[in-house]
Amino acid sequence: MLEPLLGSKSSEKVLIFIEVLGEGYAREISRFFGIALDPIQKQLGKLELGGVLVSFLKGRTLIYSFNPRYPFLKELKVILNKALAFYPEEERERLLMNRRRPRRRGKSI
Amino acid sequence: MKTISRMTQAELAAYVQSHLQKKGITVILSGGAAVAIYTVNKYVSADIDFVDVCYADRKKFKAAMEEIGFSEKNRYFIHPDTKHSVEFPPGPLSVGDEPVRRIKEIKFSTGTLRVISPTDCVKDRLAAYYFWNDQQSLDQALLVAKHSRISINEIKRWSQTSGKMKEFKIFLAKHSGKK
Question: Is the complex ipTM more than 0.90?
Answer without folding.
Answer: no
